[in-house]
Task: inverse folding
């Protein structure tokens, strides 16, 4: 696998997009929170998301052979999905930093800006999918590319958002509906997991196509990664059970540590899945 | 515009790769970067096996999928002869064209950090010569010229079994198979 820069970039930016979306949902469900309570709850998560998206951006630059020409990459927006993806990713990262910056300066969250950021981000995930799905690489030219990316966005987004707000739950946030928030995030993760299962089932309809010289079908390449594929799915299933437990459990004692355990499991699961994605060009 | 293209006679090609080496020499290509490559396809079983070699570079396609997908507009089709070229002032070295070319034509230059490819030896052509792959072939299995003339002489076959479908990019390539 040669694409470590893109591996980090896609995972970091998709996790940032997903957690912005889930944080917005948290905000919707926390209407009873006072302004300063909401500020204390969301400030650190918004900062962490901005930093994560900027890390993703830095990784994407390291993929370029001539980064000095980076601004040229938005010239072909009319026909290149890569140009579109770069514009949308740039817009998302800009909006994320703006949301976090305004939150710090104004000492209150701006829900409509979180919503706009999340929508731009979700459109960006579609563009990321199209960027790979429209290539000639066997296995990438499949609906699985879109479902894999949206699944990662929702799963990592949900578990990251919960992990970022969880430490606050055990403190003094009186008006918060903690269980409601966790259950909402779990529902988002279930949706993401379901999308990935459906995409994975449909993957085999496209995996035998070869449209490049000297290439082999993705099925032949992936045959060497059976253990990694199985480990990724098993980790995802364990993560879903743990997340489900957190959504119904009444125990507060181990809540934060279990949340971070779930985050670690999902990062490994989605990391394995993304690694396998990037081996497909051969 | 007179569209240029290549003719490859697979009935003559013995897979010696002299064209590959001559191209590497002409363009000073390091190990691993090859503007022209020879692919060998084995088919059939004893007593009727067959081995076919086909020499391929950029086919300067009519529908070059590298061009619309390039985010920088660095790849373009030259107006006078339809050769597909890369503007290094624009190229960002993202290697996205590698995933959009069926023929593995764009090749990454690590030192430059940019993509490079067959330019049909336009310096030699300006001097009235042929591309170096054509003149170096000991079997005279490669020809270069206006694609209309090549198709008139040799027909319209532009893929053989094992190659990507010509319908993807409509390559300016003619192949003699029998």
Result:
């Amino acid at each position: 696998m040669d694409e470590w820069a893109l591996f980090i970039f896609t995972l970091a930016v998709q996790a940032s997009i997903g957690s912005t979306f889930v944080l917005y949902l948290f905000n919707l469900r926390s209407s009873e929170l006072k302004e300063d309570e909401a500020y204390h709850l969301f400030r650190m998560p918004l900062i962490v998301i901005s930093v994560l998206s900027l890390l993703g951006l830095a990784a994407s630059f390291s993929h370029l052979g001539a980064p000095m020409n980076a601004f040229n990459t938005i010239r072909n927006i009319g026909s290149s999905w890569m140009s579109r993806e770069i514009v949308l990713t740039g817009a998302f990262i800009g909006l994320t930093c703006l949301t976090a910056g305004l939150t710090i300066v104004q000492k209150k969250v701006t829900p409509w800006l979180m919503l706009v950021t999340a929508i731009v981000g979700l459109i960006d995930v579609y563009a990321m999918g199209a960027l790979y799905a429209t290539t000639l690489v066997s296995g990438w030219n499949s609906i699985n590319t879109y479902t894999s990316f949206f699944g990662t966005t929702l799963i990592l987004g949900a578990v990251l958002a919960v992990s970022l707000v969880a430490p606050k739950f055990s403190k003094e946030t009186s008006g918060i509906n903690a269980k409601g928030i966790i259950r909402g995030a779990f529902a988002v993760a279930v949706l993401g997991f379901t999308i990935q299962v459906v995409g994975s089932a449909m993957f085999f309809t496209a995996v035998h196509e070869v449209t490049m010289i000297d290439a082999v079908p993705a099925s032949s390449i992936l045959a060497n990664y059976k253990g990694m594929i199985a480990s990724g799915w098993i980790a995802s299933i364990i993560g879903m059970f743990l997340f489900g437990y957190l959504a119904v459990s009444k125990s507060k004692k181990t809540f934060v540590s279990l949340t971070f355990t779930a985050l670690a499991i999902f990062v490994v699961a989605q990391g394995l899945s993304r690694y396998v994605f990037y081996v497909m060009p051969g | 515009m007179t569209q240029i293209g290549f003719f490859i006679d697979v009935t003559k090609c013995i897979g010696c790769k002299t064209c590959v080496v001559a191209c590497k020499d002409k363009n000073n290509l390091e190990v691993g970067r090859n503007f022209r490559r020879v692919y060998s396809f084995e088919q059939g079983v004893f007593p009727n096996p067959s081995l076919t070699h086909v020499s391929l570079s950029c086919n300067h396609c009519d529908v070059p999928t590298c061009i619309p997908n390039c985010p920088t507009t660095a790849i373009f089709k030259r107006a006078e002869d339809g050769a597909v070229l890369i503007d290094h002032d624009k190229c960002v070295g993202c290697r996205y064209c590698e995933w959009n070319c069926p023929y593995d034509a764009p090749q990454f230059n690590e030192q430059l950090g940019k993509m490079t490819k067959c330019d049909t030896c336009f310096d030699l052509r300006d001097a009235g010569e042929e591309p170096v792959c054509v003149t170096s072939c000991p079997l005279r299995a490669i020809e270069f010229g206006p694609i209309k003339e090549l198709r008139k002489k040799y027909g319209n076959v532009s893929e053989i079994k094992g190659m990507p479908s010509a319908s993807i990019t409509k390559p300016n390539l003619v192949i003699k198979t029998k």
